[in-house]
Amino acid sequence: MTATRLDAGREFLARRRFALVGASREEKSFSRHVLRELIRKGYDVVPVNPALAEVEGRRCFPRVQDVVPPVDAALLMTPPARTADAVRDCVAAGVRRVWMHRGGGPGAASPEAIALCEAAGIAPIVDLCPFMALPGAGWFHRLHGRFRGVHRESRRAIGA
């Protein structure tokens, strides 16, 4: 069976503890919405942003390598121009699982960030919104996944 983006996202979320790099200062931002929903669903999400000391009641770390205890996975919700630096931080921290968020906009991935992951032996998750892989995602996120071909990809992988 071929692994799909959706499978990779679900495997990532099965870890239950990971960093969310790019947690915004703006309470109404999408990254904060994702952070709140992950916390609500019981995930131990560690926010990372050098400009914040605390986010959603959780200690915020300036870089991935500053997280204590360390994480081995990171969800990057950074602008594409900053994602390569976030990947460098992940590699320096020993993070082996990287998810470059993609929602309705351009997402976090950049060619440089993807190349850095590949050079470090990391197969990044790209072109997938966390809500598409999150158990119990609402109808909007399932519909969004259908438009993006995520669910078709899963059905092809299982031969349905």
UniProtKB/TrEMBL annotation:
SMART domains: CoA_binding. Pfam families: CoA_binding_2 (PF13380). SUPFAM superfamilies: NAD(P)-binding Rossmann-fold domains (SSF51735). InterPro entries: CoA-bd, NAD(P)-bd_dom_sf. Residues 12-105 form the CoA-binding domain. This is CoA-binding protein.
